[in-house]
Amino acid sequence: MSGTLDVVLRLLAVFVAFIALPLVVGQTEHKVMAHMQGRLGPMYAGGFHGWAQLVADGVKFAQKEDVVPAGADRRVFQLAPVVALLPYLLVLIAIPVGPGNAVGQFVDAGIFFVLAVMGVGVLGSLMAGWASANKFSLLGGLRTAAQLMAYELPMLLAAASVAMAAGTVSLPGILDAFHWWWVPWQIVGGLVFFTAGLAELQRPPFDMPVADSEIIFGAYTEYTGLRFAMFLLAEFAGIVVLCALTAVLFLGGWHGPFGADGLGWLWTLLKTAVLAFVVIWLRVSYPRLREDQLQKLAWTVLIPLALAQIALTGIVKVAIQ
User: Fold this and answer.
1) C-alpha distances in Å from residue 68, one per residue of 4, 85, 134, 163
2) How many alpha carbons fall within 13 Å on the CB side of residue 248?
3) How far apart are CA 311 and CA 255, in angstroms?
4) Residue pair 34/43 in contact by the 8 Å Cβ criterion
5) Among 96, 302, 274, which Cα is nearest to 191's?
6) What single DSSP character describes residue 289?
7) How many angstroms separate the CA atoms of 64 and 226, rounded?
8) How far is CA 136 from the centre of its chain?
9) Residue 119 class from Cβ within 10 Å (0-12 exposed, 13-18 middle, 19+ buried)?
10) Burial level of 312, CB count in 10 A (0-12/13-18/19+)?
11) At a CB cut-off of 8 Å and minimum separation 6, what does 91 contact?
């Protein structure tokens, strides 16, 4: 009975984090962009420093009418936001956040599981683009498919280099095998993984599938109200998942620098927060890539770098043995 209660409490904690952390990232993005770009609007809602901006956005989405286009495939159209959001909850369950395998549910082949499930989330955009009966939405969905095919491979190769170094595909096992000298050794793989993850999330400067100056808002053009809010929540949840995975795979997760592991899960949270700030910073600082630049970056830069990282990892492993 106590074992069942422990599992329930851990899953409940993951669910609370899944709801709270993406909202915190969304609120932070409002504030960071307001400061970096001189936007005063998000500073006023609710008084002190615009603390109620997130509440105002939620009320706005809840008040909007839920419209389904007359020519849309209604069932697929309505299911797409759920498909886009739910996989990130499943991924959070498998990410270890503290010592002693502090995780919602242990998954033996953790790397394979989280990367496979994250790929499912992109299907939400494809479903939305196809079902909306809108040419701009369809074009956004096709761009999403092309982007997924280009950036899934370097992301997998970068994660494979860490699995080779640790000798396991289990996420807790990777953390148990982690050493701080891995950081400079695996830094190229970490940059490839993080960059490819941004592209899969369609975050700037890789936001070609939702380029508002070209295709209105891509696959999400016809969505309103809470369904549109679910896509936004999926985006922020994806940021949390990507940053947490990068922290676990390449930055030691709950391991602190110089052996200072006493903070435990707070180290994971701190590293995730810093990486999330970098994601927001990139949105503010860099312009959108062209489609040819986006594809060229994946096939001619990231994939060769990931393969070079795997080769280096193999050489180091053989030398150590």
Assistant:
1) 42, 19, 12, 45
2) 31
3) 26
4) yes
5) 302
6) P
7) 8
8) 25
9) middle
10) middle
11) 113, 114, 117, 118, 241, 245
- How many CB atoms neighbour CB 44 within 10 A? 12
Q: Write the pLDDT tens digit of every residue in 213-266.
A: 777 777 888 888 888 888 888 989 999 999 999 999 999 888 888 767 777 788
Beta bridge partners of 96: none
List, in order, residues 6 or more apart from 261 with CB less than 8 Å away.
99, 254, 255, 267
* The two structure tokens encoding residue 55: 């509440």
Counting Cα atoms < 13 Å in the Cβ hemisphere of 10 gives 20
pTM: 0.91
DSSP 168-195: -S-HHHHHHH--TTHHHHSHHHHHHHHH
Q: Are 98 and 146 in contact (CB under 8 A)?
A: no
pLDDT > 70: percent of the chain: 95
Task: Specify the 3-state DSSP secondary structure of 197.
Answer: helix
CB 276 within 8 A of CB 28: yes
Q: What is the pLDDT of residues 3-13, one digit of tens each?
A: 677 777 777 88
Helices vs. strands in the chain: H and E counts, helices first:
14, 0
Asked if 198 and 206 count as a contact pair (C-beta separation under 8 A), the reply is: yes
Identify the burial level of 257 via C-beta atoms within 10 angstroms of its C-beta, where 0-12 means exposed, 13-18 middle and 19 or more buried.
exposed
Phi, psi dihedral angles at 125 (to 5 degrees): -65, -40
Distance CA 225, CA 62 (A): 6
